[in-house]
Amino acid sequence: RRSVKYISTGVKALDELLGGGIETRAITELVGEFGVGKTQLCHQLAVMVQLPEDKGGLRGKALYVDTENTFRPERVVQIAKYRGLDPQEALRNILYARAYNSDHQMIIVDEAKKIIDSEGIRLIVIDSLVAHFRAEYPGRENLAERQQKLNHFIGQLLRIADLYNIAVVFTNQVIAQPDVFFGNPQKPAGGNVVAHGATYRLWLRKSKENTRIAKIFDSPMHPEKEALFRIAEEGLLD
Ligand code: ATP
Ligand code: MG
Fold it and tell me: What is the pTM of this model?
């Protein structure tokens, strides 16, 4: 995969863990409990992608699909300033779309295909992937339909990532489970469809105060290593 490129997370330890950063032509999943920093990392990546290549970016724009209304422009301003970008320009380079339901979420991504090249979009963020699907197709009786729709959506994301050589990042919730999953009494939502759809799966967990621990799971190619980072005013830092 020669033309694959990387977007730096802005955290050296995390980039090393990922083997260079967030990859294009791939889907990276961010999973972890509430407040762990999934949305913070999405904000940071939407800024990092704009940097020139020698600073870890792809000189590109981001499409930010927000399903939970947690996008905060003022956070982008803080992160952009720290990374040496003009904050207003950084905001203009994030194409923001609020997705009101799962169908809307899919339509936004489908429509986005028309502008990826002309706008120079190099990153698509979906925060979060499954929340709408879970709310709209609750319970066992809707499971098959939910998973089928989710599968369709992830397939669409994979095709776009590959065709346009861009990075796709989505966040995922954890759900409680009776068995222990990688040392956690929780597992990612979305079941097998999400597990197989994501190229890379990054598990985030809380440590002391604003410190967080990241680990790649479900990957035969990555070491069982962990990376530490912290969440600060300036964004995510080593
Ligand atoms: P959810 O599952 O609820 O969407 P999440 O994983 O997306 O959770 P975030 O919203 O990304 O969680 O993280 C919130 C956390 O980020 C806060 O609890 C705080 O620790 C940290 N944080 C947010 N803004 C700042 C800031 N300006 N300075 C320092 N830390 C911050
Ligand atoms: Mg969030």
Answer: 0.96
